[in-house]
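Dear support,

I submitted the protein below through the web form. The confirmation email said the job was done, but the results page showed an empty box. After a refresh the structure appeared. I'm attaching both so you can tell me whether what I see now is the final result or a partial one.
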Amino acid sequence: MDGVTRGQAPKSAPQPAERPAGTRGPADDRRPGGESRRWAPARWPLGRGDRSRLGRGRRLTYWMLAAGVVLAWVGPAVAAIQAVMTSGVSVLRVTAQAAGLTVFTVLYLRAVRSVLAGRFATRTVAAAGAVTLALLTGPHSEYLSWVTLGAAWASLAVLGVSSRTAAVICVATTLVTPIVALKAPPDPATLLFNALLCILLPWSNRFQLWLWELVRDAEQGREAQARLAVTEERLRFARDLHDLVGHSLTAIAVKSEVAEKLARKDMARAAEEMAEVRRLAREALREIRAAVRGYRTVDLDAELRSVRAVLEAGGVRCTLTVEPETGTAGLPQDVSTLLAWVVREGATNVLRHSRAGACEIGLRVRDGRVVLQMRNDGAGPGAPDAPADAAPGGDEERGIGLAGLAERVASAGGVLRAGPAGRGRWELSAEIPLRGAT
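What the results page shows now:
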């Protein structure tokens, strides 16, 4: 990237400040290969596995923009068929024209992919323009049939440029196309047809690209909002922790200093001060444990509603089924809290590690056991493995990932399972006895 490997900037040069996605800086104006970067550098593949709303929108935009290349074939194909059948034009000339149109098509589709990837492929568009001029100035039987080729190139060239530049391209194409391709004086209807194509089609493509940028920016905004929510929660917990133990730690420091000085003069008073230090330390530890315990106490009903809202905002259709209809009110608090953490971790994995388009969450009580199932259609070759049946021995202070959750569920006498469920699905399930977690 510009001759410097990413993440290996020279030590003598200051690191550039990070800019929000979608903004533009001086170093982003040009790229090797004559490509000008105009949008966010993020790239979304066109693979069929991406079933999110963003992926579907990108594929739809790609095919809408790529449809413009059909214009490059319709008119010339009709003219070629008529020429071969009526005028006896050689097949060799028609083959050469078809080869030129094929090259134009390849360049057109490549440029569209570059635009959707966040770059404007200047050289590719210029090469497509050169092929267009070569085809328009070549021998052909009917100008009206070839006018669509100029409009097809204009609909590509206006992508990724300013509105003023796009207007200039449309006007120039409208004027140049009949001049370079004209073999006989055209009638007014032909000129009007050429003008309409060279103006309406390019601006239609720009509108389609603008809609795609709105969808992409909205997705980036949702991601930024999620990161901000996590940061705010961390700051809130840090403030609470500071308020709880700040005074105790300050008192411990002062008492320890006093005890150090008294140790040389009055051992009895020094012992009293150290006893007070021990009491303050135990009190601080108790407050920290209470804070962590309260922080980890999550309402299952609220978590289910929150997870459904977050998944749907991320483009994942979420279906929630709770049996019995009375909800989670009858569940023990420790079981409810543990299941809430399972739901949160499962939703996090869906958003981070899958390309799911739908997620089903089911909660039911059977034979003294509560069963939670989360199933999504985002399983793929790169899906991470998860522990199957965890052994007892976990405790509250372990991690809250799948491994840590498996241990906590096992310590409650339950089982946590995660893995492929067939037909491209991934399932996370937790089964816990109603007697509660330990």
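Response: this is the final, complete result; the empty box was a page-load delay. The chain is about 60% helix and 10% strand.
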